[in-house]
Amino acid sequence: MTRAILLAAASGIALTGAVYADAHSGKSITVVSWGGAYTKSQVEAYHKPWIEQTGNKIVSEDYNGGLAEIKAQVEAGNVTWDIVDVELSDAVRACDEGLAEELDMSALPDGADGTPAAEDFIAGTLDVPCAVPTIVWSTIFAYDKEKMEDGPTTMADFFDTEKFPGKRGLRKSPKANLEMALIADGVAADEVYDVLGTDEGVDRAFAKLDSIKDDVVWWEAGAQPPQLLADGEVAMTTAYNGRIFNAVAAEDKPFEIVWDGQIWDLDLWIIPKGAPNKEAAMDFLKFSTGTQALADQASWISYGPTRKSSSPLVGSYDGKPDLKMGPQMPTAPDNFKNALQNDFEFWADNQDELNERFNAWLAS
Amino acid sequence: MTDASYQTAPLPGAPSDASGALLAADGTPLKQRLRQAMKVSRRRAFLLVAPLLVFILASFVVPIVALLLYQGAYNDTYEARMPASTALLQQWDGVSEPTEEMAAAMVADLAAARESKEIGKVASRVNQELSGTRSLMTKTARRAAKMEPPYLAALIDRDKDWADIETWGAMKLASTSLTPAFYANAIDMKYMPDGSFEDQEEQRQIYVSLFVRTLLVSGGVMIACIFLGFPVAYLIAHLPARKANLLIILVLLPFWTSLLVRTTAWIAMLQSQGVLNDMLVFLGVTSDDSRFSLIYNMTGTVVAMTHILLPFMILPIYSVMKAIPPSHVRAAKSLGATDWTAFWRVYFPATIPGIGAGGLLVFILAIGYYITPALVGGSDGQLISNAIAYHMQRSLNYSLAAALGGILLLGVLVLYWLYDRIVGIDNMKLG
Amino acid sequence: MAEAEGSNDFVVFDQVQKSYDGETLVVKNLNLAIGKGEFLTMLGPSGSGKTTCLMMLAGFETATHGEIRLDGNSINNIPPHKRGIGMVFQNYALFPHMTVGENLAFPLQVRKMSKAVTKEKVAKALDMVQMGEFGDRRPTQLSGGQQQRLALARALVFEPELVLMDEPLGALDKQLREHMQYEIKHIHEQLGVTVVYVTHDQSEALTMSDRIAVFDDGIIQQLAPPAVLYEKPDNAFVASFIGENNKLRGRINGVSDGVASVTIGEGANVQALAVNCGESGETMLSIRPERVILAADAPNRLDGKVMELIYLGDHIRCRMSVAGDDAFIVKVPNSSDHAALNVGETCPVGWVTEDCRALDAA
């Protein structure tokens, strides 16, 4: 008996030693993303298969977005992050300010169906020379269909507190709110940024927001909106579509997403300038933006793959074969009818001013 | 009066020199000997505090003065990367038409900045002065290398905004490295290209009201903490040691949970479907569809901050109360004072140092709070620290964040000075 | 000075008991009458219950049982501030945030006296303790003695008929303490107030008091004027607590006419006043060092061996070994005609029977 235990222990030690040695035979990279269900989807679809394939190791870190940390690391010359998941506006800014490495887009693999990468990615998403897009995510609004039988269907309904009484959840930021206000006020999606580019347009958007200001509960973290809905604190709320999907799929919440007037955006990988393991990071980047990895990720969270060749491969939600992921994507044809892409250049130019105005408006 | 007659005159037998100064046994003047003796102990005292002094200088004084206050007034992002245009913009008066010479320098600088991949930094800096110029600069820079004279026309051809004097004014402002612009911005003013100051557009005026609100909220939280904390401190100070220790642990208990948890717990308590509202509905105080808005507004901020900061008020007051001899109140009563008079005229004045210390502590902590107001403050619960965090983390406008922080620091120092004048800093006791 | 003879019951403790925890009595059945104008000292070691008695009288502690009367009226249920009793505390309890003048004015202000009257009385009180020019200082700027005077003045400024003092001189150095003892004594004589004074310092008690109540273990061991207490202690505790005493253990052979015949040491027979001993059994003989006679013709003669001599100026302190007790002290007056003593020599030791008291064996 004792001998058996000793033997087991000895072999256990030997085994651990082997795994340890193996892990150290490869490189270790630090991958930084937003945490929660989103990072989990990346771990399942990108990290695990890549580790298995290459024998390298990944240290996964969470952050809250923004370029503050990357800027601090690059300017201090002490970069510890190898690859970071950022929003489009931050990707552009990081590139402009020399905070990110320029990437060789021709090194990206062809699609599974043989389409060259340059054509496989959704048009216009490969324009930033330092960043490769992974997902399409969207700001939508959602409601609890158990509490509202004849629910809202358009962006205008969100701003109509007479027809649909109750509190509204909005992100405490001018981004997306101003665009949604204009869409609700009757501006066509493709004209929103033209209107918002004029002083009158900004006034118009703020006037629309003003009409529901007293009913608004402001949120800041992406995890808050589903919680606000579940607690009954708000009748409807804007949210990131993946968060609402996750509450529905994983927690069986009776939430319904309204896709009309969705503001979609991209998340991209960038490699900070001077990243310690640039080559391994690039390898991981190429792997994770391949057709299969992008399609796999979409079975964990309802953010759309940026490769066209991935779409046919998107299956069902993990563990729920009946829950097809295709129709849950922001890019699904039914959802994409009245959609607006977030204009990073507009926000790069105007966010300081609009943010001050937004905060002044909030406080007034 | 035996005790008032101690001898202070020189001893009759002690030796003294010609000027009358006392001499030590070896003939050196006594004062000199004393100074030497003191010097050794002073040097030892200095050596003992030296490590801390170095630490504070390196980690506190230098960063605050050199980085915080200085960065709020100095930003050479533009000057360092656009030297040619900087020289000309500095000579330009800010009102006359831009010259061809300026345009040529601008095009050369833009091309060089694009080449070194630093155009984004310059563009962001200019955009802080005038919204919309960021894309103007990155867009122009992309073509700058191919532009040909006349450059002014070429720029305007690229984008008509180059014809606007305002655009060049923004460049001039950005090229001024040592500038009051950020401090002006931090108090809702605008520094103009011609060197004058103007009020910020009314829709964008935000910081002064944020400062005022921060002071009001901090003051309100401080007062609430005094009113809630004083009786608790009194109770603890007058219980037997065993029970008092238990209560002290209860007071300190919240420190063992994270700030976020405590704040989130208040959300669960106060939200409209929360514990408190449920109870009020159950008791019939209010109806189901007219629940009270207790959170995501100023009420929520004050309630949560008061709860979180309460221990910082209770502990100093408690420790001061603990040191008040019970005989003082007894003396007052034996002299004929009622319970209330004894408390108000004898006990309470003795607790003022504790209230002062707790008040200052709570107030200064409250001024810097930002997680709690961000989570439960809703639209009217934003404080100045939220604005500073925004500029540090999101807009990356470090200079404006530094200017806001500098003004906040100045405000705290002014309050500290006022406190010293009114209450007296020697009167502050933390224990 | 009114000697309290029971007829003058200004302050009366009537069967008073006090317990803090319900299990042990700190004060056990206290009966005490204090005359008007009397200076009574409660003397005892710490924990003997004296301070508790004072606090019950002041109203800061309630009696568990019994009644306390002031001028004929029960004060058990009267709060401290209505008792009109002045009090001087151990550490003076001066109010640090008030000036000397404000401290003195406090009891007058709470009595709603007019400003003019207050000012006059404060000035008078300051003069009484010779601190006229200190009215604007803060208590912390005063010396210990000045603080003490101020505390005294404050307890007297509203002219109470009874003043309590709780070890008021404990924080002063020896010289100042002695000086203050006389000062307090003079003020007491001058004003004629009744003083109840608590101390553990017997010399202080002997100097100042009309009567002293010696406390131990929650009961009064003896209540008597200083001279009686010193000369005629009732029991072994009082004998050893007040002044210095030689204690000799012995066995009683018999008592006749108030004189006990006692065997001490190895068979020596002596006579002593039977005070607090039975007809037989163990006893403790108590004799003051200054009453021991070193002469061959002394009564109750024993042999003593000189162990140690200490020269103290006015007298010589001689430690001897007598009847098996190595700590037998004799005070020998420093008079030129007295035989010089030498360490190691044996000399005769004796005493007058009336000076030696046979007490309880405790």
What does this structure look like?
The complex is a heterotrimer of chains A (364), B (431) and C (362). Chain A has 2 domains: 2-135 and 268-328, D-Maltodextrin-Binding Protein, domain 2 (3-Layer(aba) Sandwich); 137-265 and 336-363, Periplasmic binding protein-like II (D-Maltodextrin-Binding Protein, domain 2), CATH 3.40.190.10. Helices cover 41% and strands 20% of the residues of chain A. Chain A has helices spanning 2-25, 36-54, 68-76, 88-96, 117-120, 155-158, 177-184, 192-196, 199-210, 224-231, 241-251, 278-288, 291-297, 344-363; strands at 28-33, 57-62, 83-87, 131-144, 168-171, 216-219, 236-240, 255-270, 304-305, 316-317, 320-324, 339-341. In chain A, strands 1, 2, 3, 4, 5, 6, 7, 8, 9 and 12 form a 10-stranded mixed β-sheet that branches. Chain A has a two-stranded antiparallel ribbon with strand order 10-11. Chain B has 431 residues and is mainly alpha-helical. Chain B has 3 domains: 1-71, no CATH class; 77-180, no CATH class; 207-427, Orthogonal Bundle (MetI-like fold). In chain B, helix 3 packs antiparallel against helix 4, helix 5 packs antiparallel against helix 6 (133-144) and helix 5 packs across helix 8 (165-175). Chain B is flat, with a radius of gyration of 32 Å. By secondary structure, chain C is an alpha+beta fold. Chain C folds into 2 domains: 11-236, P-loop containing nucleotide triphosphate hydrolases (Rossmann fold, 3-Layer(aba) Sandwich), CATH 3.40.50.300; 244-359, Nucleic acid-binding proteins (OB fold (Dihydrolipoamide Acetyltransferase, E2P)), CATH 2.40.50. Chain C has helices at residues 50-58, 100-110, 115-128, 144-156, 174-191, 202-208, 226-231, 236-241; strands spanning 11-18, 27-34, 39-43, 65-70, 73-74, 85-88, 162-166, 194-199, 211-216, 219-224, 246-256, 259-264, 268-274, 281-287, 302-311, 315-322, 325-333, 346-349, 357-359. Chain C is elongated, with a radius of gyration of 24 Å. Chain C starts with 10 loop residues before the first strand and ends with a strand. The chains are: A alpha/beta (364), B mainly alpha (431), C alpha+beta (362).
